[in-house]
Design brief:
The protein is an all-alpha fold and 110 residues long. The N and C termini lie far apart (33 Å). The longest helix is centred in the N-terminal third of the chain and has 14 residues. It has six helices and no strands. It is globular.
């Protein structure tokens, strides 16, 4: 998992035309080790810059609904908002209110 993560970082930084490859590497690193929140964050941030922000939000909401007390997932949400220059949304993240886009005690699943 770590090898894919660092290879993804190098690809993202040094090979700007290989964003899709970097996305795949970060995803592979995360799926091999779901505790690798750095890989998840990089994968989600690249989804944002490739115009797949809605996918990233839905994916993170599903993870947060399964683990509502996982602070790492809120950090990744902050990274998503930061990558999209939505700084106020990142600042307003509050685990007590539940996943972004939902109300306390409700589910965003439709």
């Amino acid at each position: 998992s770590e090898v894919y993560y660092y290879y993804g970082l190098l690809t993202r930084v040094y090979k700007k035309d290989m964003v899709r490859e970097a996305i795949g590497l970060f995803y592979q690193a995360y799926t091999l080790n779901p505790s690798n929140y750095d890989a998840l964050a990089e994968w989600i941030k690249l989804k944002v810059v490739t115009y797949e922000k809605n996918f990233g939000i839905k994916y993170l909401r599903a993870l947060l609904e399964a683990e509502p007390n996982n602070a790492n997932l809120y950090w990744v949400f902050g990274e998503l908002y930061f990558a999209n220059n939505e700084f106020q949304k990142a600042i307003k993240l509050d685990p007590a209110r539940g996943p972004p886009g939902t109300r306390p005690g409700t589910s965003s699943a439709r």
